[in-house]
Specification:
Shape: elongated
Number of domains: 1
Distance between the termini: 75 Å
Radius of gyration: 20 Å
Strand content: under 5%
Number of helices: 5
Helix content: over 70%
Order of helices and strands: HHHHH
Number of strands: 0
Largest sheet: none
Structural class: mainly alpha
């Protein structure tokens, strides 16, 4: 017999919890067009913050677990923005134009 549990369904599915910030990163990059350097700097800074967070004492980490969640969400947003930047056809066309100019100069 199944028991009625008060645990939300997304607690057992981390992918469902990480998908919204990734989608938000895609949407932000699509409409705001962040530079690659900004995306990389922000992602590295929040990655370092997550790394430094792991060195805190256990009691402090437990108290600040919400901050760890926000850092992970911001990292996923950065990954979504980077993925969108990487797949942008305008960036590919600029890259191809540079390659053609280099090849023509040889």
């Amino acid at each position: 017999m199944l028991q009625n549990s008060k645990v939300p369904f997304w607690k057992g599915m981390p992918f469902i919890r990480l998908l919204p910030p990734f989608i938000i990163g895609i949407i932000l990059q699509w409409y705001l067009q962040f530079s690659l350097s900004l995306i990389i700097v922000a992602t590295v800074c929040f990655g370092l913050a997550l790394l430094l967070f792991s060195f805190l004492p256990l009691a402090v980490r437990f108290t600040l677990r919400f901050v760890q969640g926000v850092i992970i969400y911001v990292l996923m947003t950065g990954f979504g923005a980077f993925t969108t930047w990487q797949k942008d056809i305008a960036i590919m066309q600029i890259g191809m134009a540079i390659i053609i100019k280099i090849a023509a100069g040889l």
